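Notes from hallway chat w/ T.B., transcribed later so I don't forget. T.B. wanted the structure written out for a chain they're using in a teaching module, and asked if we could keep both sequence and structure tokens in one place. Agreed to drop them here.
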Amino acid sequence: MHAVVPRTPRKPSIRHAQGARILKLRQAAGLSQVELAQALGVPQTTIAHWERSDKPPRSDVLPQMATALGVAVADLLADSDSSGESRQPVGRLQTVVAQIRRLPRRQQDRILDVIAALVQQQTTSEDEPIKRTRKRA
């Protein structure tokens, strides 16, 4: 007779802080591992490795990754989970930008299109002379 040897359960994937940060930023940008890999010109397995690792990606990849994820390089390397928000000045604009950063990439793009149109409209209207009417007593 053969003895039945119980299978040892697989160890759960250990996700280090650095890898967890990359995963969180990628998901916030609305990108899959495949999409990010294509943007960086690396295999998808490399993205998976970085998301499980406690070491940051190569320095030559960091600027491209930051651009693809819509964050600063410092946010990729931040020691805390705050994604660098605590280092920025607090204000209404920064608060809204931080909220936009958390949206999927496609929603970010739509919001940026609206903002760009509004800025263009304001810039155009500033170039035109302002006509003021005075009330006569």
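Follow-up for T.B.: Residues 23 and 51 are 6 Å apart (CA to CA). Might be a good example for the class.
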